[in-house]
Design brief:
Layout lengths: L1 H19 L4 E3 L2 E3 L22 H9 L8 E2 L7 E5 L8 E7 L15 E5 L2 E7 L7 E8 L3 E8 L4 H15 L7
Amino acid sequence: MKKLRILVSFVALGVAATTLTACDSSVNGDALPSTPAPSSAPTSSPANPFASRNQCALLDQILSGKGFPKATPTEAQAQRSCGSQGGKETNFTAIGLLLQEGQRYSDNIRNPSKARSGKLNGRPFVEDPEPLGSSGQCSMFFAVEPNSRAVLDVTGGTDTAASCRTAEDLASKLEPLLPKN
C-alpha cells in the first residue's frame, strides 16, 4: 500500500508540477500564453464545472475492468485529483486524474516540442509525452469550459508510446463523462 501511495503521489506531483509551472510554451508551433497558477483550494462557485463531479468516481469508471484497485485521493491535491496503480498485469501503471478549475487546457505544457493538439468528440486536447522528461509518461489535457481542464496522467514502465496509447484509450472513456463545452 505504501508503494501505491508513493507512486500515486508521484503521479499527482507530476501533474501538479506540470500545471503550476508558469512559463510560455507552444504546441504544434502555436504560442500559448501562461497564466498564474490557480489557488490550491477548490471553489464551490457555480462557475466551477466540476462542482458536481467526483474525480475518484470518474477515474474508477474509466478504469473499470482493467485490473486497477479503487482510486484514492492523491496527497498533493486531494480535493482535485485521484490516482490508482495497477499491478504486474498492467506493467505497474499509475493513472492520475486532476479536475482543475481556472486553468486552460493549453497552459503550461511542459514538453511543447513533442506535444500534439487535437480534438476528441469535438473537445480540444493537448497530449504531452514525457511531460517531466522521463520516458514512460504521458499526459492529456482536455478543455472544460469555462476556462478549466481535466488532466489524465499515465506513468508506466519506460515505454512512452505505450503510456500514450493507454492515455488515449482512457481518454475515449473519460471525455463523454466531462462537463459539456
